[in-house]
Write a structure and sequence with these properties.
The structure holds 2 protein chains of 2 kinds.
Chain A lengths: L15 H12 L1 H9 L2 H23 L29 H37 L1 H16 L2 H12 L3 H27 L3 H8 L4 H9 L4 H27 L7 H11 L6 H29 L7
Chain B lengths: L1 E14 L2 E14 L3 E5 L6 H9 L6 E4 L2 E4 L2 E2 L5 H8 L4 E4 L13 H12 L4 H15 L15 H13 L5 E5 L7 H17 L3 E6 L2 H7 L2 E6 L2 E7 H6 L4 H9 L48 E4 L2 E3 L7 H8 L2 H6 L2
The chains are: A mainly alpha, B alpha/beta.
């Protein structure tokens, strides 16, 4: 059907392999690096996050002791116990490293799950509008109405203390913000000319949503991914501190809870300093990273 | 060969304020290799007509028609799925309005055209890539530009890219919605010249929807004038511009400048289009028509042949000579207020 006399021509006049490379750098991982490293906040955040990630990954090999092994109780930091010990004689550095693993895991899992749920709900509500929008957004309003602590208390008392229900509780509350924001953005995008043109070309709804709208809201999605992870980590810490954590898992929040329960808060300063510093710096790091994406999503913030 | 045959197309929008008859008994034919222009002011139903052909109307629109056939396919009997599979883009494609904004900013222009090709045909990636290069050639863009993003294009280039996309599968009918609106005059001229050259080389017929009479005069072989949801006059472009029959067409002619009559003052048609409530029994132009007769308000004039291929819906079509003479007088239009 189409003229074969053009067949010899090099398409687009570029070698295909070189093209793939360039494309990978422009749209793949390289793009994220450029966005995040483009601002000092993003770079700092990424450095801190990487530090914790490395600690989490190599954790089992760098722990000085078994975090569950009872050694000398309530020791101040020393060469033998760099961050001191708890009232039951657990080495706090080992606990902190073990806690890094589970804190990151719970945070990442609930952060990602919540952006997947919230993102999809926002996309569907914003794209379809009408009744779909009404139902999904009223659902979001209900989620907004749920207070966190009573919800966790009910959930935990029904199902027992487990990290899976903690993740569930966090996800159930974190997705709502992303759903609203992404709905708003989708709503305005789906009225844009190029989305209408795609529809006129016969693109299916799913294709329009995931191939045409999602790439356009990518910076926003990433911003909320980072934000959700930060929120999830903070929430996990507070829920654990209040005693709703999984007793068989060490997180930074449960370390603080153990301290509170032991009643040694006034004596053992070393016991709360390290987990608190970790929580604060990891959450800050994630907020910094989300700020870098935000600068990309909202150019007005650039250069401030 | 008749490409598109439409008989009595009707579209009613059901709105909160009651129904609106946006397209009312519109019948026309597009032949083989024609460029058929549809002209009309805003709200005359030309966009609705175009959306009807592409099945882009919202759910609030109720469509009915006596016949709608594209090259032997009965479009009325076809469900949405088979329309999308067999007709859309393969046979009937679209250059959307404000085509400068119709490209997705995050994809390369060439990739977007490839998406359209691959979605509607079984062409391989490589063949599609070659086709894009070929299409760029046809619309006068360098083929390396397929690697660019839309923001690297000028308005005119984006317009060409959209035209290339509409040509992608060599369709039998291309619907162009205001193809030159929003472009500067020089770019308009280039696009129009380009369109004419392209059209000479391909098999497609074109339906050109516009409010710009100049574009129609420049490109089209046939033209239909729409007013308040109805086609009031249609025929070959030359006849329509030289000797129009319908008072509305006469008024339109007065309202556009003509380079051959530089000293002629433009005359506009007083009043505004009527409300589009369904079931109106009078001629839709009666309220603004300077030549209105009592019977114009009692019955809707039917389309009648006045010359070969030239039809008009006006009770006074027989007195056209006289009306044309009167229509040139400014006084005629003033008195109708």
């Amino acid at each position: 059907m189409h003229a074969p006399d053009h067949a010899v021509k090099q398409p687009f006049g570029l070698a295909v392999s070189r093209l793939r490379w360039r494309r990978l750098l422009e749209t793949g991982f390289g793009w994220h690096l450029r966005v995040v490293l483009g601002s000092w906040m993003g770079a700092t955040g990424l450095a801190i996050l990487l530090f914790f990630a490395v600690v989490g990954i190599v954790g089992p090999w760098i722990m000085p002791h078994d975090p569950w092994e009872m050694l000398e109780p309530l020791q101040a930091p020393s060469w033998r116990y760099p961050l001191g010990t708890s009232d039951l004689g657990y080495d706090l550095l080992s606990c902190l490293i073990e806690g890094t693993r589970s804190t990151l895991l719970i945070g990442l899992v609930s952060g990602f799950v919540s952006i997947v749920i919230g993102g999809n709900i926002g996309l569907l509500a914003g794209y379809y509008g009408g009744r779909v929008d009404q139902i999904l957004m009223r659902l979001t309003d209900v989620a907004y109405g749920m207070p966190f602590l009573p919800f966790v208390i009910v959930l935990i008392s029904l199902f027992g203390r487990s990290k899976y229900f903690l993740i569930l509780a966090i996800v159930a509350l974190v997705w709502r913000t992303s759903a609203r924001v992404i709905r708003a953005q989708t709503l305005s995008l789906s009225q844009r000319q190029f989305i209408r043109a795609a529809r006129a070309r016969g693109c299916s709804d799913m294709r329009i949503i995931y191939r045409h709208i999602v790439p356009n809201i990518m910076p926003l999605l990433l911003l909320y991914t980072a934000f959700n992870i930060a929120w999830a980590i903070g929430t996990e810490a507070s829920a654990s501190f209040l005693g709703f954590g999984d007793p068989s898992t060490i997180t930074w929040g449960t370390m603080l809870y153990d301290l509170w329960v032991s009643g040694d808060t006034r004596i053992a300063w070393w016991w709360f300093v390290s987990p608190s510093v970790c929580i604060v710096s990891l959450v800050t790091a994630l907020v910094f990273i989300s700020r870098a994406y935000e600068e990309h999503a909202n150019p007005r913030l650039r250069g401030r | 060969m008749t490409v598109l045959e439409a008989v009595n197309l009707r579209v009613v929008y059901h709105t909160a304020e009651g129904p609106l008859q946006a397209v009312d008994d519109v019948s026309f034919q597009v032949e083989g290799h024609d460029i058929f222009g549809i002209a009309g002011e805003s709200g005359s139903g030309k966009s609705t007509l175009m959306k009807l052909l592409l099945r882009l109307l919202p759910v609030t629109a109720e469509v009915s028609a006596d016949r709608l056939r594209y090259r032997g396919h009965d479009l009325l009997a076809m469900d949405d799925r088979s329309f999308r599979r067999q007709i859309l883009w393969k046979e009937i494609s679209l250059v959307p309005q404000t085509a400068q904004n119709a490209l997705n900013p995050v994809y390369r222009v060439g990739d977007q055209i490839m998406e359209a090709i691959q979605a509607h045909s079984t062409m391989s990636r490589r063949a599609a890539r070659l086709r894009v290069a070929e299409l760029f050639d046809i619309v006068g863009l360098e083929d390396r530009l397929a690697e660019s993003y839309p923001h690297q294009f000028s308005g005119g280039m984006r317009q060409r890219a959209m035209i290339a996309m509409s040509l992608a599968l060599d369709p039998g009918l291309i619907i162009m919605d205001e193809p030159t609106t929003g472009l500067d005059v020089l770019t308009q001229e280039r696009i129009l010249r380009n369109l004419r050259q392209m059209h000479a080389k391909m098999r497609s017929a074109i339906i050109l929807v516009t409010h710009d009479i100049a574009v129609i005069a420049e490109l089209c072989s046939h033209v239909g004038i729409m007013y308040a949801g109805r086609l009031v006059e249609q025929g070959p472009v030359r006849a329509m511009f030289q000797a129009p029959f319908h008072p509305y067409t006469l008024g339109l002619k007065n309202a556009f400048p003509d380079i051959r009559e530089m000293d002629r003052k433009l005359i506009s048609i007083p009043g505004s289009p009527p409300h589009l409530a369904p079931g109106a029994r009078s001629c839709s132009f009666a309220a603004r028509c300077p030549f209105v007769l009592p019977e114009c308000r009692d019955a809707r004039p039917r389309m009648q042949d006045v010359e070969a291929g030239h039809q008009v819906a006006c009770t006074r079509a027989g007195e056209a000579e006289e009306l044309r003479r009167l229509a040139r007088e400014r006084e005629t239009w003033r008195s109708s207020m």
